[in-house]
Design brief:
Length: 417
């Protein structure tokens, strides 16, 4: 045991032990993707504290589980770096029954794909949704990583099923499973950039060219589908064939669509990436054009449309089969006790003592002299007469302060030196 009174120059070794149990009650499945299953769960805390959360649990039947687990961990890290009202927030990255899981905020609503199955959205509401998603894409690209550099996050899978609307008119961007960003703690490195849904991939992405313009193109496809209620279809790498698909799609737009909106959609779906507007420009243009529409605001339209679809989705999800068999169970995430690494004992530096020399008219540090010479012997030989004729002995080690350097006004050296 360390006794600080006997050895005050040693730093104590601090031992820290943490024990934290987090319980999650699985209520129902919300969706199943290629990597994991999302559940609606209830967090059970101390003092009868309860909170509904979304729990994304890694599937047990996936191929290459180590690589998939690394992507799931990277998704949690990227969500923790982003701060935007249209991006779902992450609460914790943990392990449940030896499987990685991401605890996120539960967004009560429906995905945009389910709403589009009923028909197109009002023009003003579609522009507001596009503005929220564009703002999220701009925040993801211009964000900062923990190292202080540019995050440059690319979602690479913008589509209606990854956009969720609430009854209050909120828009949330989900699923960053195949996103790419710049940060040092990233584990999974994409070997092939051709990841995503082909119907929403830009032409250059099929040629392994990735950039923020690809997310703008995918958002343009989503905006087109919100205005028309029909699918655009897969694009082509050939510029001529791609332009033919876009020209045919522009003819399907209703005459009630503003000419500025038509030009915006056509610009976002341009074949050349440099011809597309940035996400910041899309947010500004869509917000400006939404004010010119006579449609009700998104938050008022969503109270009726989203709430009705949310009830039907809740009924269908209750009858959905739970392939993992986790519904009704309580999963516990327990952290193992950790001990801080003991630091080697270090000896503190001795205090610095100062003295003033009347000859040199400035102070000098006694600790800068030879450590083997006691401080009583560190007086310059020039001040020996002031000490009653005492002469310091020759120092065994070289010291710049025992013998002052010669110069104008310097005292005469001692004959013994």
């Amino acid at each position: 045991m360390l006794n600080l009174r006997e050895n005050p120059l040693l730093e104590p070794v601090v031992t820290l032990t943490l024990s934290l149990d987090r319980c999650y009650e699985i209520l129902e499945p919300l969706g199943r993707g290629g990597f994991g299953t999302v559940y609606r769960a209830r967090y059970l805390g101390e003092g009868d504290f309860a909170k509904e959360v979304a729990l994304k649990v890694l599937r047990s039947d996936v191929d290459a589980p180590e690589e998939v687990a690394s992507r799931l961990r990277d998704e949690a890290r990227m969500l923790a770096m982003l701060r935007h009202r249209a991006i779902v927030q992450v609460d914790q990255l943990t392990r449940l029954q030896d499987r990685w899981a991401v605890v996120m905020e539960y967004v009560e609503g429906v995905d945009l794909g389910r709403l589009l199955s009923r028909g197109p959205l009002p023009q003003g509401c579609a522009l507001e949704v596009a503005a929220e998603v564009a703002g999220a894409l701009h925040a993801a690209w211009t964000g900062r990583n923990p190292e202080g550099g540019a995050l440059e996050l690319l979602h690479r899978d913008i589509k209606p099923s990854n956009l969720r609307l609430t009854a209050r008119g909120e828009v949330k961007v989900l699923d960053l499973g195949i996103a790419r960003a710049r940060f040092d703690s990233r584990e999974a490195h994409t070997r092939s950039l051709a990841l995503g849904t082909p119907s929403y991939m830009a032409p250059e992405r099929f040629e392994l060219t990735d950039g923020p313009e690809g997310d703008v193109y995918a958002l343009g496809v989503v905006l087109y589908e919100m205005l028309t209620g029909r699918r655009l279809g897969r694009t082509w790498v050939s510029r001529r064939r791609h332009q033919g698909v876009i020209d045919e799609a522009m003819e399907a737009l209703d005459d009630a669509v503003l000419p500025q909106v038509r030009a915006l959609v056509e610009g976002m779906l341009a074949w050349r990436p440099s011809d597309r507007p940035t996400a910041r420009d899309v947010e500004w243009i869509t917000l400006t054009l939404a004010r010119r529409c006579d449609d009700p605001p998104l938050r008022f339209w969503a109270e009726r449309a989203v709430l009705h679809e949310a009830r039907q989705e809740r009924e269908s999800s209750a009858n959905a089969a739970d392939r993992e068999g986790l519904v009704g169970s309580i999963l516990v995430a327990q952290s193992t006790p950790t001990r801080a690494e003991p630091r080697p004992p270090t000896r503190r530096a001795p205090p610095r003592r100062w003295w003033w020399s009347p000859r040199t008219r400035h102070s000098r540090s006694l600790s800068a002299s030879c450590p083997s010479t006691p401080w009583r012997r560190r007086l310059p030989r020039a001040d020996a007469a002031r000490c009653g004729g005492w002469r310091p002995p020759r120092c065994s080690q070289a010291s710049p302060w025992v013998t002052p350097p010669p110069g104008p006004g310097s005292p005469r050296r001692c004959p013994r030196s």
